[in-house]
Amino acid sequence: MNSLLWPGSVEEHVRANSYNTSNRLSDMDSSTDDTDHAEYRSTELGSESPAELRESSTEEYAVVADSTYSRAQFIEPSSLGYIHIGATVRPRSLPLTLLPIGREKTELLTRLKERARHLEELEAVETATIFETAAMPPLHRLPYIKEHKDSIHLARFDVAVLIETKSPAAAREVQETQAYQTLMDAIQNAATDVHVMASRNEKRIGDVDKTKQGVFIFNYFVADDPEVMLELFDYLAGSYVAETGLDNSTLLVPLDDENADYVAINNARWDIGILRFLWRELTNKSLRSFVQTNLKANQVGAMPVLYRLA
After folding, report:
1. SS (H, E, C) 129-197
2. β-bridge mates for residue 133, sequence order
3. pTM higher than 0.85 for the full model?
4. DSSP readout, 28-88?
5. Residue 77: exposed, middle, or buried by beta-carbon count in 10 A (0-12, 13-18, 19+)?
6. Region (Disordered): which ranges (predicted)?
7. In the chain, what are the domains?
8. Chain-centre distance of CA 84, in angstroms?
9. What is the tens place of the pLDDT at every residue in 130-147?
10. Residues 96-105: what's their mean pLDDT?
11. Are 6 and 295 in contact (CB under 8 A)?
12. 167 Cβ partners below 8 Å, 6+ apart?
């Protein structure tokens, strides 16, 4: 999750607030009160950067700038497997447009939904859902992404597919089926860029309801240190729970043998219209500052793309 749909100046925010404190997130229990959190955060780093601090220890560290938000409360991860497919077909030049998507893309989405129904007939498949973009920020301008643009796979996916399987192992089985290959053929014939990630659920606030329309997010995470990103996610998710009432989220991480370009992909849904969602994002300065500051401090990049059901 990320309040970076239209990026601000993170550097100015960090300088203005003089964030120079660090804490070991694994030592912070969610039951600890804010006073204890503030005292714990008072340890100064001196001249060491967060990266240098992490290199000097065998344990993983992450920076939390203040005690505004606590960790999200997670339930047990799902036992399902997942296949996320992101495709760049015809992304809009503007972050948000309400114009029709065009005949060719409409026909593609119709074909994909039909092939998704065939996938759902397989015993190993729980659901197969097709998404189209509702809003996409200028990803190349986002903090961390801009600084690492030569090594990051920009997630400019205006079409996304999420297949849920009976288990992580079943995800591999599904990828060997004719029904899956037929779906992939349709995507690859239309797309200029495709990314596939077979995955499992690492952290879950609640299941994402894909049976009805809403604002869906796939947030594509990259990072210098994957473990730090996964710990920081607890607080990023917690900020959205507190500020937006978020009650669902499934954080997907690649299977052990998967060659993926992202540390994790988070999926969530809000029962709200896209314009209202964006207005709330743009006007919530506290949330935006918290997210941007902590992403920068931890050398984590997030590429949030908003979708609707196709």
Report:
1. EEEEEEECCCHHHCCCCCCCCCCCCCCCCCEEEEEEECCHHHHHHHHCCHHHHHHHHHHHHHCCEEEEE
2. 307
3. no
4. --TTS-HHHHHHHTT-B-TT--HHHHHHTSSS--B----SSS-PPPPBPPPS-EEEEEEEE
5. middle
6. 17-55
7. 81-222+247-278 (3.30.70.100)
8. 12
9. 999 999 999 999 989 999
10. 82
11. no
12. 79, 80, 81
Cα–Cα dist 19/296, whole Å = 11
Residue located via tokens 């550097």: 11
Q: What per-residue confidence (pLDDT) applies to 164?
A: 99
Chain length of the chain: 310
Instruction: State pLDDT tens for residues 190-204.
Output: 999 999 999 999 999
The Cα 140–Cα 253 span in angstroms is: 23
pLDDT of residue 108: 98
Using CA atoms, how far apart are residues 220 and 133, in angstroms rounded to an integer? 14
Closest alpha carbon to 163 in 141, 144, 135, 187: 187
Retrieve residue 78's tokens.
């799902």
Please report, in angstroms and rounded to a whole number, the separation of the first and last CA atoms in the chain: 22
